[in-house]
Amino acid sequence: MRTWMWLLPCLMPSLAWAETQVNIVGLFQGKAIMVINGGKPRTLAAGEFSPEGIRLVAASSDKAVIEVDGVRRELGMGQAIALSGKGAMAGSSSVTLYADSTGHHFADGYINGASLRFLVDTGASAIVMNSGDAKYAKIDYKSGTPVSVQTANGVANAYKVVIGNVRLNGLILNQVDALVMEGGSPAVVLLGMSALNRMEMKRDGIALTLTKKY
């Protein structure tokens, strides 16, 4: 018994050093449902550890705070993160997203290092973002090619640009075509076909796995 008690504190951190993907699929006050490394959904109460060494620090209906090797991360409903070592982002060729209650797949990612919210949209021919987000990502969109695009509200002005890099939980795409719309629409970045065509998309229930092809 004493041997096992001595091993347990050492074992849990060592498990967390391996690459681990955490997906939040349910949120409640004091509890969160998460999928770890593509396994079955697991419910953790605040303060509990998963077998992989992931601790749920706190949870509400809006977000969960997890801790790995002393490093804390905040995740919202449907968000995922890849962890390796001291809670760092891990490089990966794939990412799994989980649909929200409306059936949409959202993800937190980066464009040119700027943190932005994405929505998977197979109906968009390219990545589409508003001009405010483009400025935040340090994209000189007005040096791009002016184009007119058809939207639900009619014809709008936009600029065709090339994004240096897009990152979703470790999955990285370089030199991706995009459209920047003048104004505040769309409210989130649409992850359209200029990016999705470079990934294999696999649906399994509410899970959507994107795997980089090139």
TrEMBL record:
InterPro entries: Aspartic_peptidase_AS (IPR001969), Clan_AA_Asp_peptidase_C (IPR011969), Peptidase_aspartic_dom_sf (IPR021109), Retropepsin-like_bacterial (IPR034122). Residues 1-18 form the signal peptide. One of its GO terms (biological process) is proteolysis. Keywords: Hydrolase, Protease, Signal. It comes from the Bacteria. Transmembrane segments: none annotated. PROSITE patterns: ASP_PROTEASE. Gene3D superfamilies: Acid Proteases. This is TIGR02281 family clan AA aspartic protease. GO terms for molecular function: peptidase activity. Pfam families: gag-asp_proteas (PF13975). The keyword Protease applies. It comes from Methylobacillus methanolivorans.
